[in-house]
Amino acid sequence: MSRITPTAPLRPHRSRIAVTALTAAIVMGTGIGLAPVTQAVEAPTAATASQTLPTTTRFVDIAGYEGVTLAANVVAPTDTSRGYPVIVLPTSWAMPQIEYIAQATKLAEKGYVVVSYNVRGFWQSEGEIEVAGPKDVADARKVIDWALANTAADPELIGMAGVSYGAGISLLTAAQDARVDAVSAMSGWADLVESLYKGETQHTQATAILASLGYATGRPSAEAAEKMEIMLSGKTDRIDEVIPWAEQRSVVHQVDRLNTNDTAIMLANAWGDSFFAPNQYASFYEKLSGPKRLELRPGDHATAEGLGLLGLPNDVWNNTFRWFDHHLKGVQNGIDAEEPVQLKSRSGGEYEGYASWATVPSRTQNLRFRDDEDILPQLESGANAGISFLSSMLDQFARVSPTVSIPLLPSISAAVWQTERYDTVQKVRGTPTMRATVTSNRSDGTVVAYLYSVNGLGIGELVSHGPVSFHGKTPGQPFTLDVEMFSTAYDVPAGNRLALVIDGVDTLYNNYNTAFQAIDFAGGAELNVPLR
């Protein structure tokens, strides 16, 4: 039986809650011999929900799917005389079960039961790493069952949250379990294929980091180990084995379930996420029909919310608390009145609000470069997107992006086109794209397109980039090459140019270029830049 108390108001937009409340009012009215009356009940405000409650912390073992023991901890108010919303927090990849203790304590002090657990295969939890497979989702549902049976958790008020791996598992679980009312998915993924194989190019540096951490802190299953080996090999002959496996772990293919469940979903990511680029989150966001919010800001994978794990003030966690307060407690804190898409430029400034991702750019500048270019893509040019974590962290904290001297780029390995200088600031907002007609003397190959902001000295600062590979082309026959770069928010200063640079080598990615390969950009290239 659900509990209705003034201090734990139910989520207002759920139809089942409205029916329960109406039924209770009718029963109460007729039970005392009076006609039912309508009474306005003021929803809690942020001020009334800010009281701090005493809490307790305990470490427990929870039986997951097929009896696998999951190491967990529970942080909850000491007063168990009433029910509280419950938040389930699956841990990030390679992180121990104490990862969320600081934020769990803050949530418990606000009147939540918080259960955090080590996902299977890592640290003290039993089982093997399944990479957010069906067993991981089944585990999460078992943790919810355990919380409802062993804590003062209200079965009608359930939320999930997590960073990275925990975010992915939270979204997948919410799609499978209609009991989950609200989710905050931080630095996660919605499309694992897009994340690991964008542009049909293996993201080998990110995969290598994940695989190394997985083996160092856990026990990959035979299937997971095989898929990671295929991704790291750089070979294409077995990539078709990875794609269905990754699609099964991609909530974008289960978006209809989330929409049917009317789950309130908050997505947060960083512009420079080395693992899960913002494009796939933004595309997924547009497919959601229920309550939703998208936040994108400077940083790399999990760096935007990382300091919050230490209990320090943090925008992502603050908004996560507001999200749960509103959608689980009914607190009128204004989060529903804000524009649902919140972006922070890499160039600084305040957050910008938009009605949707599609309305972020107000116009697109189409640039047609007609000069022919030829490159030897197997040679390093000096243009690159930096190093996983380090480069985007410098961008986040010091506003220092990867740079290159555009005039010094060797023409033998880099195609370069530039605009005239801009008289005014150009606010790039969204996803730049590039299209070109190319001819290769090899059937397979890779190119990486870079967009730079170039100052008067010719120094280019990276605005965005994107890889793309081609396979099975007829040597000597022209074909169209499209590159979708990574979404970004960047202000090109007045007096600067934009430069489109294309080469074939970047240490972030595998490439399929071979010796004596040549790629001809006959007719130049077309660049589309989204602007605010």
Automatic annotation (TrEMBL):
Which Pfam families would you find in this protein's record?
A: Peptidase_S15, PepX_C
UniProt cross-references to InterPro entries, sorted A to Z: AB_hydrolase_fold (IPR029058), CocE/Ser_esterase (IPR005674), FrsA_esterase (IPR050261), Galactose-bd-like_sf (IPR008979), Xaa-Pro-like_dom (IPR000383), Xaa-Pro_dipept_C (IPR013736)
Which keywords does this chain's UniProt record carry?
Answer: Aminopeptidase, Hydrolase, Protease
Annotated SUPFAM superfamilies: alpha/beta-Hydrolases (SSF53474), Galactose-binding domain-like (SSF49785)
Q: What SMART domains does this protein's entry cite? A: PepX_C (SM00939)
The record, for Gene3D superfamilies, names: alpha/beta hydrolase (3.40.50.1820), Galactose-binding domain-like (2.60.120.260)
Record keywords: Coiled coil included?
A: no
Domain Xaa-Pro dipeptidyl-peptidase C-terminal, chain residue ranges per copy: 321-530
- What Gene Ontology molecular-function terms does this entry list? aminopeptidase activity; carboxylic ester hydrolase activity; dipeptidyl-peptidase activity
Q: Which NCBIfam families match?
A: CocE_NonD
Q: Which family does it belong to?
A: Belongs to the AB hydrolase superfamily.
Q: What is this protein called?
A: X-prolyl-dipeptidyl aminopeptidase
Q: Which organism is it from?
A: Streptomyces fradiae ATCC 10745 = DSM 40063
> Top-down, what is the taxonomic lineage of the species of origin?
Bacteria, Bacillati, Actinomycetota, Actinomycetes, Kitasatosporales
